[in-house]
Amino acid sequence: MKSLPLPKTCLLTKSKQYNEVYKHGTRIRGKGFSLIFRSNDLEKDRLGISIGGVRLAVRRNRLKRIIKEFYRTNRSFPSQVARKKSFFKNTDMVIATRRHFSPNSLSELSQALMMCLQGNQDEYKNANEFSKKTE
């Protein structure tokens, strides 16, 4: 089987990058998580991970590993989501989890994301509208 590394250039690493996605992105809410995505001017998609409410580092890190593995094996996932919603080509996407979201495997994460995208969860909203409502 061919190895698929995940280089640092495929990840959001700076708080400014995350803030841009949160401020100008589009949000799709799932049960226990949100997908926030926004177009970028790069030749590739990038992933950001935001884990909320998980106090134990072991659990936080396991969740990050599962999400990174999903992205590593499904590298075109952010672009597919964006195209499905008729938005843009290359995408920055943040997966923001809440306290009770804890998939134990890659298949559980895949299933949760697919259910969200099929419309079984809340419909997507513009992140700007969301931030105004919470202020």
Large-scale geometry: globular
The name CATH uses for the topology is Ribosomal Protein S5, domain 2
Instruction: Please give the order of strands in the largest beta sheet.
Output: 3-4-2-1-5
Q: Which runs of at least 5 residues are low in confidence (pLDDT < 50)?
A: 120-135
Total number of helical segments? 5
Tell me the β content: 15-25%
Largest sheet: 5 strands, mixed
Radius of gyration: 14 Å
Give the ordered list of helices and strands.
Answer: HEEEHHEHEH
Helix and strand composition category: alpha+beta
First-to-last CA distance: 49 Å
Give the mean pLDDT: 81
**Proportion in helices:** 40-55%
**Using DSSP, what is the number of strands?**
5
* CATH domain class: Alpha Beta
How would you characterize this protein structure?
- The chain is of the alpha+beta class.
- It has a single domain (9-130), classed as Ribosomal Protein S5, domain 2 (2-Layer Sandwich).
- It has 5 helices and 5 strands, in the order H-E-E-E-H-H-E-H-E-H.
- The protein has helices at residues 15-24, 57-73, 77-84, 106-117, 127-134; strands at 26-30, 33-39, 46-51, 91-97, 125-126.
- Strands 3-4-2-1-5 form a 5-stranded mixed beta sheet, sandwiched between helices.
- Strand 1 (26-30) and strand 2 form a beta hairpin.
- The longest helix is centred in the middle third of the chain and has 17 residues, at 57-73.
- The radius of gyration is 14 Å and the shape is globular.
